[in-house]
Amino acid sequence: MSEQDSGQGQPWWRGAALYQVYPRSFADGNDDGTGDLAGLRSRLPYLAALGVDGLWISPWYVSPLADGGYDVADYRDIDPAFGTLAEAEQLIAEAHRAGLRIIVDLVPNHCSDQHPWFRAALAAAPGSPERARFHFRPGRGPGGELPPGDWQSHFGGPAWTRVVEPDGSPGEWYLHLFAPEQPDWNWDNPEVRAEFASVLRFWLDRGVDGFRIDVTDHLVKEDGLPDSAGHHGRPDPWRDQEGVHAVYRDWRRLTDSYPGDRAFVAELWETDPERFCRYLRPDELHTAFNFALLRAPWEAAGFRQVIDATLAAHAPVGAPPTWVLSNHDTTRHVTRYGRADSGYGFDRASRHGLPVDLELGTRRARAAALLTFALPGGVYLYQGDELGLEEVESIPDELREDPVWLRTGGVDRGRDGCRVPLPWSGQEPPFGFGGEGSVPWLDVQPKTWRELSVAAQSGNPGSHLELYRAALRLRRGHPGLGDGPMRWLPSPEGVLDFTRPGGFRCVVNLGQEPALLPPRPEILLASGELQESPEGLLLPADTAVWLRHRDDAPQG
Ligand code: NOJ
Fold first, then answer.
1. Does pTM surpass 0.90?
2. Ligand 1 center to residue 70 CA distance, Å?
3. Are 497 and 521 in contact (CB under 8 A)?
4. Which of 23, 154, 319, 443 is the most buried (most CB within 10 A)?
């Protein structure tokens, strides 16, 4: 799988459908309750048959799991709970044989406090080369008892933690934009740059097809780490943009010395579409997760505005847009779309526990899948999207593990509810996640998931899973889908209607009333049942349809 393109003269990633695996919760191969590489390897045929082009694997590295694996203690090895490096190598080879690309998660903003370099920094003196790889500073105030600056952690509380010096005295403070167990690397330090170049080479040598880069825009901090000046208590990453570019230019050069075409997928928190796209350059970061649609409430005009702004901002930088409905950090979209307020702001606090109409959410999730799979660019699916899983909001507090929950004092319920182990088969938990009698690390699978398991849905033509399979198969086989142009067609209020080259049309009804479809439509796929009426075929509310389109006017 090292060839340059997708068979259409374009790099493979420009229009790819990538499936996010959160290894801990995907499939448990040794029945110890934790998902692992053995489980993932055994499910590669499932993923290949689903019709995705590749996998993005959330961190599988050695980690104390203070932040679900985004606290890496060894970037060159697999956590023993997940398996071994040899298994990871086998997995990459097997995935390639099955036609699946592999994108690994790179976490360069911070490591784990158990990383040997951070432990060495704690053991060394202030001002030492070991401390210079991180952001250590003396505290403010007469005894240094106040944090060196006002930055706040994304997980709540100050972004600075004070250390005890090796002689037992209260000492310097170090920076962590996330949990205290995740010290931020100092990207001005040449040793840090060299180390990550070596880590990149390590995984390129093992044949990975790309990198998903965690917290892409926070890496390089503004000189002097100045107070936030009101920027939500955080540094404004925009100020350090050129520094960020320099890092990714170096990585790009390094990667280009390998044969084949490898993807750099950025996780960007920027919400302004133009600023977002200025991070993307053909010789640096290729493409980034676009969370704008994920934030938008279920409403046609807002969706259209997001789609138009996304396309307009991406066009000048030559990057393909991406579409994301859920990931391991967000409330699952079946739940979001089942609420009266279906918008999302990455905060669970304001909406947690509000009533959810799961049937409505599921109907909309099906329509949203057809919409996003039809839009120009790439798509990212999160494990369980294809099963129509909802967020598990009823987790007992004592089972919650997410540092977001812990560090906000329970105000934000955290992200555990979207990380519940997947249901594969059977009538009772653990639903085939592990063997019968094994207990998943987060033992809260709802009983209703017996109907949502892979086995229960397979072969059932009306199921969520079969809709995903059919849609991904059509998407892959249709030359007009994935990367490329689209053209809006006039549509009534509440309806989105657009075409893609090669005679493809997508109509989505986000309104309240059924919408009349064009006369004698040739239907490729529908997310729900269409209704007959004397005027013609109707597309019910919260439903999407793919049609064969005859008029092939030029696409914008
Ligand atoms: C973004 C990741 O998606 C999230 O899970 C993690 O907590 C933060 N970055 C910090 O690494």
1. yes
2. 6
3. no
4. 23
